[in-house]
Amino acid sequence: MQRVTWPGGATGLERGACVTIGNFDGVHIGHQRLIARVRDRAAGLDLASVAVTFEPHPVRFFTGQKTPPFITSYEQRAELIADLGIEYLLCLEFNHSLAQMPPEEFVRRILVEHLHARELIIGHDYAFGKGRQGNYELLRALGETWGFGVERMDPVTADGVVVSSTCIRKLIESGDVWAARPLLGRFYCVPGTVIHGRGRGGRLLGFPTANLQPAGELFPKTGVYCCWAELHGRIHQAMANVGYNPTFGNDDLSVEVHVLDLDEDLYGQHLTVHFVRRLRGERKFSGLEELKEQIGRDVAQGRTILAAPEARL
């Protein structure tokens, strides 16, 4: 996938493009269906396939850090979109100038003159431009003026509920990562770098843990999870504790991962944790022996869950 900029040159788009626009937080199954439609439509018409997104997220631009945590970072979104077969990604810097741009100008300058759009495919509720005036009806009228077609996709539902980044975020924050999987089309994952922790896992408990410095900002509810640990392209069964380790009275949130059946120095290495199921919440134990016994039971339960076909990565 080629990343293009605006303003600036965009080679390879002269033949025309099939374009979609969105924030795509999580790149969930609704986004995936939309992007697949763009990819297939572009191939059928011999057009370039293009996804347009924004950084920072427009909501965060207007409200700052008061926004809920996002499911995916921009780099994660870009990788997931690339995996879906899109040829070009345009990430627009969302700033005051773009926020104030009327939708007619956005269409002319970016979609028509820059991307050479011949087809535009949008989600069921997409709107853009100053005051979100750029809705489906206006886009169709502008398409007639500038010579591109507009298609609006139907919403994707699961159990009668429209799939959205908001509902997925709520599931993850509640700890129900298992229920989030069919909406995401994959297990929710947190990438990060292994850093030095407090050295208690192997030394005191007999279960060495990798202390993760996460790259994302959304964490599952505190507790113990069985998960898959991805390391250098290899997948390992693992257990993760998200929380404050109340037995030891920690103040800072941590993500500690025990990679099963792996005896290897992980410090400084990149590790991605794919959360499968929450086993229990955090609790304070009377001492090390009681904690070690519970961890042993957690590992046994986790192995059973991860061995099931429906838990495969």
Question: What report would you give on this structure?
Answer:
By secondary structure, the protein is an alpha/beta fold. The chain folds into two domains: 2-155, HUPs (Rossmann fold); 188-311, Riboflavin kinase-like (Elongation Factor Tu (Ef-tu), domain 3), CATH 2.40.30. Helices cover 33% and strands 27% of the residues. It is built from ten helices and 14 strands. The chain has helices spanning 29-45, 58-63, 74-83, 96-99, 103-114, 136-146, 165-173, 177-184, 201-205, 288-307; strands spanning 2-4, 17-21, 48-55, 88-93, 117-122, 149-152, 157-158, 161-162, 188-195, 210-214, 223-231, 234-243, 254-259, 270-280. A six-stranded parallel beta sheet has the order 1-4-3-2-5-6, sandwiched between helices. Strands 9-10-13-12-11-14 form a six-stranded antiparallel barrel. Helix 7 (165-173) packs antiparallel against helix 8 (177-184). The protein starts with a strand and ends in a 6-residue tail after the last helix. The mean pLDDT is 90.
In short:
It catalyses: riboflavin + ATP = FMN + ADP + H(+); FMN + ATP + H(+) = FAD + diphosphate. One of its GO terms (molecular function) is FMN adenylyltransferase activity. The protein has helices at residues 29-45, 58-63, 74-83, 96-99, 103-114, 136-146, 165-173, 177-184, 201-205, 288-307, and strands spanning 2-4, 17-21, 48-55, 88-93, 117-122, 149-152, 157-158, 161-162, 188-195, 210-214, 223-231, 234-243, 254-259, 270-280.
